[in-house]
Amino acid sequence: MNPVNGSSAVLVRDTILEARDLVLSFGETPALRGASLSVKKGEVLAVMGPSGSGKSTLLHCLAGILAPDSGEVYFDGQRVDAMREGDRSRLRRERFGFVFQFGQLVPELTAEENVALPLLLGGTRREEALRGARAWFERLELDGLERHRAGEMSGGQAQRVALARGLVAHPDVLFADEPTGSLDSLTGELVMGLLTRTACEDGTTVVLVTHEPRVAAYADREVIVRDGRVTVTAAVPG
Amino acid sequence: MIRLGLRLTLGSGREAALRVLVTAAAVALGVGLLLASLAGVNGLHAQTDRGAWLDTSAQASRPTSTSDRLWWLSSTDQFGNEAIDRIDVAAAGPNAPVPPGLSHLPGPGDYYASPALTILLRSEPANELRDRYPGRQIGTIGAAALPSPNSLIIVIGHTARQLSQAPGAVEVGAIQRTPSSCYACQSTVGSGSVLQFILAGGAVALLLPILILIATASRLSAARREQRFAAMRLVGATPRQISVVSAVEAVVAAVAGVAVGLALFFVFRPLLYHVPFTGAPLAQGDLSLHWIDIVLAVIGVPVAAVVSARLALRRVQISPLGVNRRASSRPPRIVRIIPLLAGIAVLAYFDAVGKPGSNGSQILEVLVGFVLLIVGLVLAGPWFTTAGSRLMVKRASRPATLIAGRRLLDNPKAAFRFISGLVIALFIASAAIGALSSVAATNSSGGGSVGKDTLADPFCSFSTTNCPVSAEVPSVPGQVVAELSTTPGVRAVTLVHQSPSQAPERNSFGLVACDQLAKTPAIGKCAPGATVANIGYFLSNLLGHNSHASSTVWPSAQLSAASAARLPVDAVVVATDGSTGSLERARTSLEQAFPFQGGGVAVDALDPSTARLLAMIQDMTDVIIVASLIIAACSLAVNIAAGLGERKRPFSLLRLTGVPIAVLRRVVALESALPLLLVAAVSIVVGLVSAALYLHSQVGIAFSIPGVAYWATVVGGLAASLAVIASTFPLLNRMTGPEVARND
């Protein structure tokens, strides 16, 4: 079965996320025109494409942030697009993690409090949440930055803190939208290396939106979005 | 550069226009409130001016010629809970001055009544009100002489010979036209230096929060503006040019705001007449603005906006490479609370050592203490905010509490700045209410319900120290006592006779036969076996010298009842069944029996003029509490909008990751509500403590916690403030929607 060109009534057993024939317009402007895609458990998938192709919109639909005008999104056998907003929010909070391009840390909170935020939202006690958060600092080479604020860290450091925040609650899927877009190439590679390594260690599925082939090279597989459709899918050469 | 500033302000797209619009709307709200407050103050002054003539006797002037003389006697009567200003006049010559609102002086047997009193005179039974006033009504008093449309005033004519014999009557050469500056003149609505002082305090308490609101509004969207200024610096603009552009932006929004604010004021002015500034409704036209008020708004507000914008720019360094916030200053240190503690210490010191001997020292003590407290509260505010935020962060187990606490800790001075005006307003209001409620409690604890049912008509020798001998009541004929006793609802009549040793000792004011005293228990009891008692002062008064008469056993007098009965009468006490009709009938009978000797007052109540003054202060304080809380909440709402502008990206991204909007709402609510509630609590506590210390040291009254009405006003005001804060939630929804994260 080709998830790009066809649709199936039954999810393939190891598929965790699937989009079928998604259509979405912003006013008169079409963003997705029948995009389909499936992601396997534990896979790192890069979604590539030029600016304005619809790749971020596709990610937002997959993550339940946006509801498509038509088409279906499945996560772990559940139909996401038909869920109510509250259920989609809970799904994002409990099963997904996110890393964005920039500006995602709450400026008033320290780095460790930012990382602990998803755990606190899940009802974990504060000390326990902070303990859980601190464990990620060594793993992501952020030792000593626990008490720093967003404004006191470099872009790379802030992005790693955001990565820790995205992974701290052990999500099933990590959505990363241009995670290195605001970083220099060296720092970008450091972040990508850490992202893919930790995701692999934890068995987390990663959906990565980027327009940089260098970043996409960290993925197991890449798809290309053009004019709101997924046009090419290919394994990334080892 | 000005043209560029205008182009950037007005022609930079939808977002820039929206920014100007929001700023202008907030300035308009502030200006509208400012003008409403100024008009309110003007309205109260108009009441004061119209009521000035009622104080004519307080500044008795020497007649310019014998033909200009007018005999004048003013007193305060009462019907139910309403005070009636009674003026007795008698022309001593053909050119005697005529009070305002009257076409001519009433002759003997004639009277004028105000429209509200005319209605009462017609609607109430004659033996409860109309029979108190001798003669017939020949007209109504014109609006020019009425402090308020519902003022109860009567002007009664007499012969000069008749009135000149009345105790307290004075000869005047002219009617007073401007508010007097004498302390004793506080009896009438809106006049007297005490009320002027209170008005000034009320105006300051209200205006300060409004000015802070306007200053806050003019700094809205500062972060966005600063980013644009950095871009301008990159292409070569000088800091001076940036200042000009910033000033132009501020002026455009402020001018638009002033125009809309003026319009809002005039549109909503009719509703303002319903605000009970002093409990006495304002007359049509009272809520007017002087030209200086308009100038203050039209020129002052834009100038203030420019200054505020300039100050805001000084807090950031705008370089071609971006905007840097100046490093936030050190957290407020504990030394900030020293002036506040010093203020309490000053009042506590005088409470411990007793009040200073001279009036000057007393005023100095109060002034130093209260100024230290006000300054201390403003200085200590950021420290209290920091302490509260630290506690919140330390105990935070929820993300919302943590984020809000951290934000407050980040800049406690800024968080406090928006509500600093509230501190002063709530402090002044709480101190005033604390004092008023203690006075009220002192009086209500005197005789219980029986004290409210019993009237006393204290003749001038009882109530004043300079009563002419001619005004003494040598005896009360048995027929008068019998008539009083047969008034429907009257249960007993007791005569208080002048003590032969009436001297400085307070406990020998008068003598009462024990068989009579037993029927009027509100003024005390005799010792067992006594036939005549030496009775002390038994009426309530403002200074708290209430003797708790009903529970007092007066000492026995070494005099027979027959001998006591031959002494002059100092007061008549009438016990009633407590119904309104009975009390008013008894008052009417007392007035008829003892004209010019004052009216009947409840043993357990303040005299009507003092009660009216206290009620006015209470009403004004309620208005100040509610208005200042709502204005502070408006400042906070503007601050919330500005804060959301700064954080819309992280907040919108949090929402994308599934954080419920309720969590963000809690962040916003806590950030605003914590300083508001904390500062309100501190101001209220300090206000009540200072009232307690002042009352105890200066007046000798024990402090009692204000009643339910005060707390209901505070809770209602806080609820309204929280509602204003909650009104920003839709803004939060819109500013943090998914499209913001996508497009920002």
Describe, in plain words, how this protein is organized in 3D.
The complex is a heterodimer of chains A (about 240) and B (about 750). Chain A has a single domain, classed as Rossmann fold, CATH 3.40.50. Chain A has 7 helices and 10 strands. Chain A has helices spanning about 55-60, 85-95, 110-120, 125-140, 155-165, 185-200, 215, and strands spanning about 15-25, 30-40, 45-50, 70-75, 80, 95-100, 175, 205-210, 220-225, 230-235. In chain A, strand 9 (about 220-225) and strand 10 (about 230-235) form a beta hairpin. Chain A is globular, with a radius of gyration of 17 Å. In chain B, strands 4-3-5-2-1-6 form a 6-stranded mixed beta sheet. A 6-stranded antiparallel beta sheet of chain B has the order 13-11-10-15-9-16. In chain B, a hairpin with a 2-residue loop joins strand 1 (about 70-80) and strand 2 (about 80-90). The two termini of chain B are about 30 Å apart. Mean pLDDT of chain B is about 80; it is low at about 180-190 and about 505. At the A-B interface, helix 2, strand 6 and helix 3 of A face helix 11, helix 20 and helix 24 of B.
